[in-house]
Amino acid sequence: MSKKNEKLKEGYSFGKAFKYSFAQISDIIAYQSFTFLIFTFYFAVVGINITLISIAFIIWAVWNSINDPLLGALSDRTHTKWGRRYPYIIVALIPLALVSIFLYFPPISFGISDEIINFVYFFVIIMVFEFFYTMFSINQVSLFPEVFITKEERAKANNIRQTIAIFALIIVFVLPTLFIPDLSNPIFLPEYQTFGFLVGALIILFGLLFLKFGPREKSEFRENYQTAPKLFESIKTCLKSKSFRWYIPAEVANWFVYGMLPVIIPLYGKFVLGIGEGESIFLALLLGFAFISAAIFVNILWKPVIQKLGPRKTWMISQGVWIISMIPLLFLGFDMLIIAIIIFFFMGIGLAGSLLVVDIIIADIVDEDEVVTGTRREASYFGVNALLLRLSTVLVFLAIGPVFIIGDWEVFDPLNITPEIIFGLKTLIGIFPGIALIIGILAMYKYPLDGEKLIQIKAQVQEIHEQKKARV
User: Fold this and answer.
1) DSSP code for 272
2) Within 10 Å of residue 282's Cβ, how many Cβ atoms?
3) Contact 354, 319 (CB under 8 A)
4) Residue scoring higher pLDDT (132 or 153)
5) Cβ proximity of 377 and 366 under 8 Å
6) Is residue 9 in some structural domain?
7) What pTM, to 2 d.p., does this model score?
8) Range of the domain at 96
9) Comparing C-alpha atoms, which of 69, 132, 67 is closest to residue 100?
10) Distance from C-alpha of 76 to C-alpha of 85, rounded to nearest angstrom
11) Count of the separate structural domains present in the chain
12) What's the CATH code of the domain at 135?
């Protein structure tokens, strides 16, 4: 291959970014359907006590704090003829699809109604799901800063990637409402199971498309496994990064909101907005309009803003916009669905900024780390990042559990909806996310990779890559 053709192959193209996004579609379908439905499914349909569900999710988050950095460090230290990332994606794909189906087949679906047996199944299946999801996700995400190296490549690729991600999110939130007339009614358990089969099929479809057509790892990074640190050394090294330490609170804040909204929307929609049986499509419209808005504003607003102000300032502004847009959710009630849809559309403006910026910022942190260490350790950073992000899941259920208990809603009872429950649902969707995002803004204010310092890092990392290419 001529040097000219090799350069073209390695450089950015729309097709390259589009094909990379196939893996992200599988990732989003698996995780966001889990986030959107599993809490409501096991609380309202299966009938597990809120305290047991909260305990299970908190232990699940602790398990993830071990699982994610372990698999990230293992990936960085892997060396095969297929690269570091692809073997794990191949191994995880089919099990991830299967467990995404089994999530909707608890013992109660076979006539076993004992709460403890169903709780044990719930606990085990979410652990297994997370293991294979992490194996798939952390490796496909780690490819992004390896495949798209320069600031310009990442900005263009991330724009395409996040646009596709937004439409994937819309599909994820619309599809179950087409199958399940009421997400909180136990009689629709078979419809949940039908949706599970569809999720499994879509995960496999887009995963195979990625494995067939997706971009491969670059040859100059294949020897990095020799200098990649072990697990605890990796965690220690990542946490030494001042940039990473200030990034984490902002990312946890965002993921708290990402986690809270889809978890609580089915119950908020039914009991605050009055969305009834056969109208669950309106739940999809709420989230769908937020993501449609995000798809619009990611290009016309945040792309030029990030080019002018950089990722740090863009993220702070987007978080502020997001906070303001959520305040009206505290004042909605029955017969206010149209107003709610409009509010969610405006929420998409702030959401778009964070979706665009997050991966660009962590890629910048990985670049800074490469300047310091000489080694690219994407999976280690994404693994430690995932470890700390699990704090957001703990925080989500530390918020939901007490709010439901105070409202005397430990066991799902749709016929006993008190003003305390209504107020609790409003605070979970309006006040708690706002507090989290304020903390995120304060953290990003202290984030150091900005302006001249970021320009200097980019110049140094480009020089390092040229040296690595020369040695290949």
Assistant:
1) T
2) 19
3) yes
4) 132
5) yes
6) no
7) 0.79
8) 19-218+230-471
9) 132
10) 8
11) 1
12) 1.20.1250.20
